[in-house]
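Appendix B, example 12.
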Amino acid sequence: MSESQSRSRISLLDLVYAFAMAVAALLSYWVMTAGLARLVDTPTDLLGGMWAAVSAVFVFRERELDSFSAGLARLIATCVSFALCLPYLWFFPATPLGIAILLASGTVVMALLRRRGDIITTGITTVVVMVVAIMDPHDSWRQPLLRLLDTVVGISVGVLCQWIGFHLLQRFRGAWQAT
């Protein structure tokens, strides 16, 4: 069988991976929308659910160590964005110029931290926080806090679902091979 033919087959591992990632995204979305519904308006809780689901998908990798590393990278990038956006939004309104300033600042900070590979994630997080703050300027300083919470929930659920899914698969394979 050629290499291209073997790649086109879907394995049990592929199916478990797909299912576990879908469950992680769904759980992350549900936790944040249900949790935030009591605290914020509907567009904000939907954004929180989306951001948590994105975080869960972002960290979902085939190996546990890779998932953990991706989660740590996502958390560091989000923390840098948080550390830049929160004080900015305490003192200044969210504007396109503010986005540019924070993007440049985030890039420099990530370079100083020797995390150049995470500059894009920091930038995406900063843009989301600032655009939402532009769309809803009332209490815009809450956006960095909410996106940090969304990210932590998404990372946690994503890594946990990845771990559970692959440990269940290993048990299933062990039981299958024993028979």
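The chain is about 80% helix and 0% strand. The radius of gyration is 19 Å.
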